[in-house]
Amino acid sequence: MREFLAAELPADWRGVGALDAEAADAFAERWRVTLFEHGFLAPSWPSEYGGAGLTPLEQVVLAEEFARVGVPTGIQNDVFSIVMIGNTLLHWGTEEQKQHFLPRILSGEDRWCQGYSEPGAGSDLAGLSTRAELDGDEWIINGQKIWTSSGHLANWIFVLARTDPDAPAHSGISLLLVPMDQPGVEVRPIRNMSGDSDFNEVFFTDARCPRENVVGEVNGGWKVAMTLLGYERGEAAATLPIMFRTELDRLFALARENGAAEDPVLRDRLADAYVGVEVMRFLGMSSLARFLEGHPPGPDAAVSKLYWSEYHQKVTELALDVLDVESLVVQGRRPTNVTMFQTDDVGAPNDSASWITTAMISRSGTIYAGTSEIQKTIIGEKLLGLPK
Amino acid sequence: MIRPHEPTARSKEAMDPTLDDAQRAYQESLRQFFQSKWPESSVRASMEARTEEETRVWRQLAQQLGVAGLTLPEEVGGSGSTQIEAMLVLEEMGRALYGGPYLATVVLAANALMLSGDGAAGKEYLPAIVAGELTATLAFAGNGRDRSNAPTPTARRTAGGWVVAGTAHRVIDGASADRILVEADTDEGRSLFVLESEDGLVRRQVETMDQTRRLARLEMTDVPARLLCAAGEAAGVLDRVRALACLALAAEAVGGAARCVQETVAYAKVRHQFGRPIGSFQAVKHRCAEMQVRLETATAAVRHGARVAVDGSEDLALLASVVKVHAAESYFRTAADTIQLFGGIGFTWEHFAHLHFKRAKATELMFGSPRDHRRAIANTVLAVRG
Ligand SMILES: Cc1cc2nc3c(=O)[nH]c(=O)nc-3n(C[C@H](O)[C@H](O)[C@H](O)COP(=O)(O)OP(=O)(O)OC[C@H]3O[C@@H](n4cnc5c(N)ncnc54)[C@H](O)[C@@H]3O)c2cc1C
């Protein structure tokens, strides 16, 4: 892995954060091609579908090295294309679906986004009301999705739609694969609190997709949807602590430079952040041991999701206090979306813009992929067996 | 490999992949031992002074389960196991609120004797410690906060050998230990001694907030003592023992917290109000979930600490601070929530919750408070690097 990275990256590589925003985006696109050519874009997929067929341990090593060096594992949409729908197709898809969609995902021809949440259905996803009806060989889709991340960059969307309006909430839903490049699909950007527009509303007005574009059974989509939601990168247990540690080291550097490290109260909070990120590493090692033994992540994922998202809010709040009045002014390079929606890119300069944006972004960590309240309910009910 | 989400309720310990089968079996026999031999009634009976039962149970622990010799070499009767097994012992002790001689005798004194490299003293005391026949303790200068806070006992050479003078505070098992190791200042620097006589020694048991652990004040007036390590060279030994003691308290904290979570969750399932189990109320369920998160993270931390104590792959003092801060604070929060979630009954003397609450606070404050440790952490991690 190290040889691969040494061969493919410039000698003075300091992480994608050292590039300005445009150069970073351009790098990500080029890097994706390199990964594709070496089979590292979907390292866990079998080689017949263009993956590298790596063992779990190898996947972890790969992810760790990438996180350390500060290169992305794909572009923004790949979390939806590869991690979510690609893996779900490997699990539930027909052979035709796999043969058709998986290569197009890897080549970059198809870029996916996730059409789950609706204005009236967030935490209570089963309350969704987007409808799909069969018309001959096609589904006709009407309704609205919201918070669709990277939807403006996608040309395909996987849509949870109600296909049997008379059935109980969970049993009349199907997962449809819908092309976005058609008159019946309209994407409108939504601006988030950091000022960026990464998520969207998606409107369906008599939009169409072929009858065979259902994953799993018609009306059996809830199970498929849950499989998709649970696709958890085992390697996240290994990479999150690395990312957050790199970020904290950067905060330490800032605190030393501007003297905040001498303030006893801030010093105590900085040390507490260190405790927090170390505990994340220990937790990661224990999840990793389970992952490598072949245990599915299951409700454990709720523990680490809750832990890192709450940790990150605390540490970025601290960062603003370390910056003190400098937090009043946005100055310097703003984080890109290249590495992920969590920390700023590795190698990023220690500017106020970096911390301010990250602090804003961190507020979403406790909302997306199941809010903290929902995670606690999962832990209570699934892990501890408390009654509903 | 990426796998689907298949939520199933399961027992945490049963799944711990970091333990091997033998370790799991050992954990199970320890748990059974404490369940039958050290129920809460024994904890309460021993809260005043050491009971005969306690002495008996300690011998059994040493002789039947080999707890005292786990990390000691075979020459002195130990089994040469690792800190992992020792950590399992401590977790079960914490779960059972065991306050017997293990912490002082084994974690403090036996480790210090081993690390001192004094072969003669080791041969003299360690076999008896392993057999459960001899108890011991170590009086750190200032049990916790900045050492300069308490005037450190001093030692000097006399014609008849070394003598130690001064007061040692909050010495665990100080009133009952058969042998007392003392950290003292000499002209050469920090040194470690074993007191050799009761002459000039006054042991005063003090009333403790955490009644499950006994502390004493030792007043020493030129007590004859034997030097361990060369004079002035005990700092390394004491620092390592202190780190091991922090990890030990953290392991106990995990056991205690596990018990709190287990009991609280069980109660939340059966206690009904407003016609439903209280565990179905989110305010209750979510507190339980937070307890579980603290428990899982603290367990992971303690297990990692034990591995590092074995393989030396990381800075042990720094790691011990991190692990102790997290485990102790987690335990305290969880014990406090336990009282809350049991309601009025949780506030009673007869209920188990206050025993954990007090022990958890004591755990936070012994061998350095969270603030002390965070200060030490900051001094290391915020230091300008290379
Ligand atoms: C940055 C970002 C990106 C996203 N990307 C996507 C995407 O690509 N595709 C997609 O489909 N969705 C996406 N989402 C949507 C996300 O999944 C939802 O926002 C989330 O599920 C919460 O739903 P909601 O916003 O409707 O809030 P609500 O469900 O209305 O929740 C509001 C508040 O009520 C609380 N609450 C709700 N129900 C309960 C309960 N039972 N018990 C206790 N408290 C409760 C919540 O915890 C929260 O605090 C994204 C969201 C964000 C913030």
UniProtKB/TrEMBL annotation, chain A:
Spans traversing the lipid bilayer: none
Residues in Acyl-CoA dehydrogenase/oxidase N-terminal domain copies: 2-109
Keyword presence, Flavoprotein: yes
Domain spans labelled Acyl-CoA oxidase/dehydrogenase middle: 113-206
Cross-referenced Pfam families: Acyl-CoA_dh_1 (PF00441), Acyl-CoA_dh_M (PF02770), Acyl-CoA_dh_N (PF02771)
Protein keywords: FAD, Flavoprotein, Oxidoreductase
GO MF term set: flavin adenine dinucleotide binding; oxidoreductase activity, acting on the CH-CH group of donors
Names of required cofactors: FAD
GO CC terms in record: plasma membrane
Presence of keyword Oxidoreductase: yes
Family: Belongs to the acyl-CoA dehydrogenase family.
The protein's name in its UniProt record: Acyl-CoA dehydrogenase
TrEMBL record, chain B:
Molecular function, one GO term: acyl-CoA dehydrogenase activity
Gene3D superfamilies: Acyl-CoA dehydrogenase/oxidase, N-terminal domain (1.10.540.10), Butyryl-CoA Dehydrogenase, subunit A, domain 2 (2.40.110.10), Butyryl-CoA Dehydrogenase, subunit A, domain 3 (1.20.140.10)
Residue ranges annotated for the Acyl-CoA dehydrogenase/oxidase C-terminal domain, each copy included: 247-381
Superkingdom of the source species: Bacteria
Pfam families: Acyl-CoA_dh_1, Acyl-CoA_dh_N
Domain Acyl-CoA dehydrogenase/oxidase N-terminal per the UniProt entry, residue ranges: 21-133
Keyword Mitochondrion: no
Keywords, alphabetical: FAD, Flavoprotein, Oxidoreductase
Protein family membership: Belongs to the acyl-CoA dehydrogenase family.
Protein known as: Acyl-CoA dehydrogenase
Species per Swiss-Prot/TrEMBL record: Thermomonospora echinospora
